[in-house]
Amino acid sequence: MKKVIAMLLTLALTAGLLSGCGQANSNSSAASAATSAPSSTADTASHKLTVWCWDMNFNGAAMNKAAEIYKKTDPNFELEVVDQGDWDTLQTKLSTIASSKDYSQLPDIILIQDNAFQKNYKAYPDVFVDLTNKIDYSKFAEAKTKYSVVDGKNYGVPFDNGAVIYGYRTDILEQAGYTIDQFTNITWSTWLKQAKDVLQKTGKPLLSCQEGSSDIINMMLQSAGASLFDAQGNVNIVNNDVLYKVADTYMQMLKDGTCIECTDWSGYTDSFTSGSVAGTMTGCWIVATIQKAEDQKGKWKITNIPSLDGVKGATHYSNNGGSSWAVTSNCKNVDLAADFFAKTFAGSTDLYDSVANAGVLATYLPAAKSSVYSQPNEFFGGQPIMQIITEYASHVPAINGGVYYYDARDAVCNAIVKIQSGTDAKTAFQEAEDTVNFMMGKKN
Question: Which of 151, 167, 182, 332 is the most exposed place for a label (fewest CB within 10 A)?
């Protein structure tokens, strides 16, 4: 499970998991009750809710701050946040309990990785409560909301932001005669030309990635409104024209040396914090890692990503990472849980202002108008990057990520490796599609 970094108010974010997740602190804040094993949820007269999540410095901190805010509405309200350590541990525990059908062991509220939401719902539909008419979803970025929508019904409350940014070393660009504006609202063909020029003049690639990862592929796909699944949830790999364009672009980057592959996550992050690579493109949580290079303060700026040439509806926006809250069927007071969310994560800019220093960047659109989000970040040349990123999130195309998102992602990743080794693209993608269909129980 890839680690990602959570943004601090200065957007020096703490380390976290790729979808806004991370290794957790073993203790909850004082706003919570004891965080040993939770009791089964209270009856409808209770003012208490239990929550399972991971990373107490990020997810847990946001929940505890939300409890403080909600106490103004209900002074008797209590929140028990139970640290599950990491997403893998939580997922295993959820699967074990849900498979046993003994839902009494579940908490009232649970945090789910966005790209795992659909598969969890399909496997355990009775676990999730319909929140469609209890939350105002119009105030969230549409693409974020869609992760937890099944058959037109909302089963999740959007949480952290995974909008993709492209961060550039502006001092390196200037050495080659470019400005950040010349890398804003451009196409990938323009990027390839300019990045090659920058490399020739400075010796610096403008992009790096982790070897064996398909993150860049998936970010580019979503920016064009495309997915590895069609609207009906069928695998869409071998006949996916956009995927071939993405693969061709990626192969050209590697051929030109404008993008370099690193052996692991540490190598990837070191590539741009050390200054050997002059840019990075991924979820906005990467800002924390960028800012670890204190000697580069004021030398970075962010912008949107290139769009795919010749693809109708292609945009400069995408998403990588994030999670959403869900209310479980074990909750005996759904009205309390829904009201809690309606007045906090889905209704309070004060909440998002308060937890900005814990790295929580909203997909709740009204937060972008707050004075906290408009504050300049000196590391990034004075850009109000929280405001910019929240704006980016509002433009991310909503796609059907598919129930078997992770399976398809891994299969395409393997296909890309084969293509690099000389396998014909159609052959490699056919094998990938066959693999995912097999996992889905479909005959090829």
Answer: 151
